[in-house]
Amino acid sequence: MEEKKDAYAAFRSRDYRWFLLLRICNTLAAQMISVSIGYLIYELTSNPLNLGLIGLAEALPAISVSLLAGHWADKYSRRNLILMCIGILAFCAALLLWLTWHRFDLPKNMLIAGLYTAIFISGIARGSLSPIMFAFLPQLVDKKHLSHAITWNSSTGEVASISGLGLGGLAYGFLGPETPFIAALALFSLSLYFGWQIPSKPVPPANHNEPVMVRIREGLRFVFSNKLIISSIALDMFAVLFGGAVALLPVFAKDILQVGPQGMGILRAAMSLGAMSTAFVIAHRSLGQHIGKVLLFATAGFGLSMMLFAVSRNFYLSFAALFLAGIFDEVSVFVRASLLQFQTPDHMKGRVSSVNSIFITSSNEIGAFESGLAAKLLGTVPSVIFGGCMTLLVVGITWWKSPKLRNLKSHELDVV
To answer: Can you give the residue ranges of every domain in the chain?
Structure first.
């Protein structure tokens, strides 16, 4: 076990530095697209249900391809698979840019159909990319530095994710709807360049001649037989499925707080600031020995923050609520990523991560659909309050039904 005081040990690996740059650019681009297309579709339709349909259009292909992508990640060059996925995302960014550029020339129904088509195609690439990148990470650093690599990977990923949302909203509001798609295309191009700088790595030894379904079932059995893994990812899925209000930010920004796309960008940045500050602390300080309880309290804190955001009518209070949500989310992201990496053998990381990716996609994208549907049926504010209450209920059930996760100690994860 390495000493925590050397918080930057993983950065000694040149390949890891290129990987982080790739991840940052790719995540920034994807999230800039996410926030921009959400506001664009809401402007075109004024229907919160359509915001939920964005999540559904991305989730269905992502979930469908995820298990197969996990199999690929454990059999073929992970570097080359990553480059292929990013190339598809770059194509989708170019398509969105073209549609947005010609939005006044195209029939409205055709424009909206084109936007959803681009989202669907990107869902295939993003559903494949997540398990492949998870499996590739341990090949880039010395094993004794893996815990710090996980820290910076989850931290920079979270920061880039929320920063991309903030930058996308600001660019959309101040520079026009085409700008975020131009920036995203440039960032995907940079990701491809950074990826080419990383040499292709050999796949960990395993029986690669087994049929695809046999290998996929092996990954599924491992996940569902490991109580720590299944409890942690189920906690995340149900908590974020009900508790997230990010998909409804265009409604809050435009109709409730009345701050427009500029204000929406600032609200997105609030979560980024919370995540950034927490990432820095985690890299230098321990979360304590009772890591399981930290995970549960952080998830509960996320739900409470969302409820505070829902009832706020003050822009600054809303900003503070989202800042807190960013703090709690970053803590839970780090703990879950550490648990998965240290509990999973190298030759199964792709397949195990693909199962986790399905849970994450379900919580984020299908959660966006749930948020849009609930807002349509209950109203925007009541739907977010209801979601926060459900998050607290999920935490309570997990505390009661999963004592192994509740009592998990940090030394069991090799996290100090």
So the answer is: 9-413
